[in-house]
Amino acid sequence: MSKICFIVGHGRSKSGGYDPGATSGAAQEFKIAKEIAKYAQQCYNATYQEQADLMNYDGSLYLTDRINKVNASGYDFVAEIHLNAGGGTGTECYYHKGNETGRKYADAICDNIAEALGVPQRANGTDEGGDKVKLNSSGRDYFAIIRETKPTAVLVETVFIDCASDLSKVNSADGQKKCGEAIARAVAAVRGAATKSKTLTSSASTTDSLYRVQAGAFSDKENAVSMLERLKTAGFADAFIKS
Ligand SMILES: [Zn+2]
What we know:
Layout: E1 4-8, E2 23-24, E3 27-28, H1 29-47, E4 52-55, H2 63-71, E5 77-84, E6 92-95, H3 100-117, E7 131-132, H4 144-147, E8 152-160, H5 164-170, H6 173-191, H7 198-206, H8 221-233
Parallel strand pairs: 1-4, 1-5, 5-8, 6-7
Antiparallel strand pairs: 2-3, 6-8
Helix pairs in contact: 1-6, 3-6
The chain binds zinc ion.
């Protein structure tokens, strides 16, 4: 059972129609965000012993479905992946008001995306990072995926879809992979996730082949036994006779 999940933002709207999220020319937020989330999960699961889930890659879940699924899951951390819009540049990440663990995730994610993609962090005025809180008019968290869920949740605004230079960083599979890997590394660092052992995989892959060395071929069994004795005396403990 995974304790963490990468969630794709958007994909289905409450009105029943398809919700691509923000758009810019041919670029759709949902289509880019789902690839970034996929690469985050792939990188995480390939690199670390702990495994992560991926939610809403096919865009089949309404926001309310995603919230219900998160709350039924037993996760202790979830990150919903988005692209920003509305004029601006760089990366920012929202967390639960007052949740210091959430702030650490948000801060690490912004640091890693900024470094991997070469984009600025959208500073919140209290530090240099893009980690921030956004509240509604009742003073509660603005984003439902943060407000209505039990685990520590963050909403990642990776980059701006309506900023040409930002979009160019994530408008290819290569860029989406870089961004996803940056998020995975950030999450792993905050969790102290242990990496998979490389030794185990390499030794497992060599057990298929055995190389045998022949020391003689005899028609008389006595001569074969004699050769075996000599080999064992010489220290070849694994020597044996095969007929
Ligand atoms: Zn969005």
